[in-house]
Design brief:
The protein is α+β, with helices and mostly antiparallel strands. The protein is built from ten helices and nine strands. The strands form two sheets. Strands 3-2-5-9-8 form a five-stranded antiparallel β-sheet, with no helix packed on it. Strands 4-1-6-7 form a four-stranded antiparallel β-sheet, with no helix packed on it. One of its GO terms (molecular function) is DNA binding.
Length: 308
Amino acid sequence: MSSETRPEPLDGLALAHPGVESSGAPVLTLRQARERTGLRVEALAATLKVPVRQLEALEAGRYDELPDPTFARALASSVCRVLKTDPGPILASLPALARVRLGEPENALHTPLPSATASTVLARAASAPIQRLSAPVAVALFLLVAALTLWFLLPRQAPEPAPAGAEPQLATQQAPQAAQPDVPTLTPTPAPAPAPAASPVLAPLPAPAAPAAPAAPTAASAPLLAPATQPEVLRLSADQTAWVQVIGASGRVLLQRSLQPGESVVINDDLPLQLVIGRADAVRVSVRGAPTDLNAVSRNNVARLQVR
C-alpha cells in the first residue's frame, strides 16, 4: 500500500483561497518576510501607523476584519515596501476587486450608467455646501441692505462745515415773509447772495414815533429803548442737546459745538451769519427779538439759514 502525500493545510488566506500556492500565500509570505528581517509586528504597525490588529488580520487572512479589499491591498503593498519584498505574488493572492458585488446580478454595479450620471453626482456634491449656506448668506445680505438703507435715510447729526469764504446761497424765496415789517426775512443757505434791495427788509426798522403822552409814561419807556443802541441780533436757546454751527461773513467760525439743554448763546457781529442746526426741533432761534420758524428752512430735521 503506497503512502499518499498530502499538502499541509494553510491557515488564513490559504484556507480561504485553496487555489493559491503556499509559496504565494500572504499568511506565510508576509509573516515569513517580517520574521526574516527580525521585525516585530508592533514595530511594523508603528512604522505604517496602523493598528496591530489590522496587520495580524492581514497576515492571518481575516479580510473581513479589514475595512474593505482596497484597504487590504494598500496595506499589503505598504508592508512589502517596508520589508523590501516583491508585492506581485502577495497582491495576486488577495481577493480581486472585480469579484465584489453589492446586489443581484441584474442590479450589479458593472451595469453601464448614463453619461450624465457622473456629472450630475458631482454637481449635486458641489452644490450641497452652497445650499447649506444659502440661508445664512441671505440673512447677512438682508442685514447689510437694511443697514445701508438706514444710513442713507436717517438724518446726519453732524453735517460737514461749509468751506471758509464761501458765498451765501439761496435755494428758495420766502416772498410772503418779506411783506411783514416786524419779522426779519430768513432764507436757506445754498444760492448766491440776494440783491441789495432785500437788505432794507432784513435790517432792523427804526422804532415808530411814540405818541404824545404824559411825562410819567415817557420816563417808564426809557429802559426799553436803551438796548436799542446794541440790538441782540441772534439768540440760540437749546431745549435739548443739539449741534450748532455759526460762520460769520469773514469766514470765521463763531460757534461750532453742541448746545446743552437750557443753554443760550447770543451773537451780534460779523453779519451776515451762516447758521446750521443739527436738530431743528431742539433749538429755538430769535432774530432781533423775534422768534423764527425753522420748519420752512429744515430738511430731515437739519436747518440751514442766513441771518443778516
